Amino acid sequence: MMETSDDQHDMSDELPAALQRYQDLVQAGRCADAEEAIEEIMDLVMQHAETDNSPDWALVVAASDCELAHDYAGMEQAQLKRLAIADAHNVTGIHRDLARLYVALNRHGEALVHAEAIAAIGRRSDFPFGAALELRLAGGIHLRLGHVAQAEEYYRAALDRLDVDDASCNQIRASLLSLLAACDLACDRTRQASERLDAAIELLCPYTPMLSAAGVQSDLAEWWVNTAWLRVKLGEVDEAGEAWQEAVTLSRLVVELPQCEGIYAPLHLARVLHEYAQASTFVGGRELAARLSAESASIAADLGLPPQRYY
Predict the structure, then answer these.
(1) DSSP secondary structure string for all residues of 72-105
(2) Domain limits of the chain?
(3) If you write DSSP's letter for every residue of 42-70 in order, what string do you get?
(4) For residues 269 and 85, what is the distance between their CA atoms, to the nearest angstrom?
(5) Measuring CA to CA, which residue among 272, 206, 217, 215 is closest to residue 245?
(6) Cβ contacts of 73-82, under 8 Å, gap ≥ 24
(7) Residue pLDDT tens, the chain, 311 long
(8) In this predicted model, what pLDDT tens digit does every residue of 208-255 receive, in sequence order?
(9) Are the beta carbons of 196 and 181 closer than 8 angstroms?
């Protein structure tokens, strides 16, 4: 067994405690204090990174450096090397990173291979929260690639793994309800979508003042995207336009957060702009659509990526 320093032992105690403090503060409605807890968590993660001399961490750093340099071949090679030496405890994150990279590179068949690997891990997991995260990841890849039925299956399975009485699961439950609403909308089930979106925002509301929490603001942006599509389908033009603007504003906010450095927050913004352009026939007209489409395309081009394929 690898020896562990006293500092590393302390870190393994401090990080779970910091995460628990964050959850407790959110549930108590103390959002300003919760944002300070996020900073504490990030500091602990950085401290751990500075003392981690493992081969895996060296490859994580290499992949990150390649991402910032838009060296996607190097990024892929670093992640594949990680996968080759991975153990069961960190393989999910590697499959996630490869799946997202392959989506960005329009190598969608390869992305699905890793999505299915994540789903298999989630189905086998005895840890309900972790299983829900993994199944949501797999569903997200399928939904991004237009596989609505498969995405819905994974989102439902993820929701089923969560304890409805556990308030610490409220954020992921809200995210899953919003994503299921996206599936409903793709199948023209507007009533179910509306009900799910109402339930999602009720769960998400306590988190929304936390502007530095990337996951919260990303989930809220996705809720606005799906709310905007619902308003489009219901013919509520003004409300749809307002919802699209909220979705774009929050997506831009996430891009600016320091923990979101890299390609994926901008790519999420590009997708939101693309969808807004699609909907602009109903809420803004051709000039707005052209402007949104141009900005969406420019994001991928500036990142050195091919034009993104959407479904």
Answers:
(1) HHHHHHHHHHHHHH--TTTHHHHHHHHHHHHHHT
(2) 203-311
(3) HHHHHHHHHH---HHHHHHHHHHHHHHTT
(4) 33
(5) 272
(6) 75/101, 76/101, 82/56
(7) 333 333 333 455 787 888 788 878 877 778 778 878 888 888 887 787 778 889 999 999 999 999 999 999 999 999 999 999 998 778 999 999 999 999 999 999 999 999 999 999 999 999 999 999 999 999 999 999 999 999 999 999 999 999 988 888 999 999 999 999 999 999 999 999 999 999 999 999 988 888 989 999 999 999 999 999 999 999 999 999 999 999 999 999 999 999 999 999 999 999 999 999 999 988 878 999 999 999 999 999 999 999 999 98
(8) 888 989 999 999 999 999 999 999 999 999 999 999 999 999 999 999
(9) yes
pLDDT in the model for residue 32? 78
pLDDT at 96: 97
Distance CA 292, CA 204 (A): 28
Residue holding tokens 């602990």?
A: 44
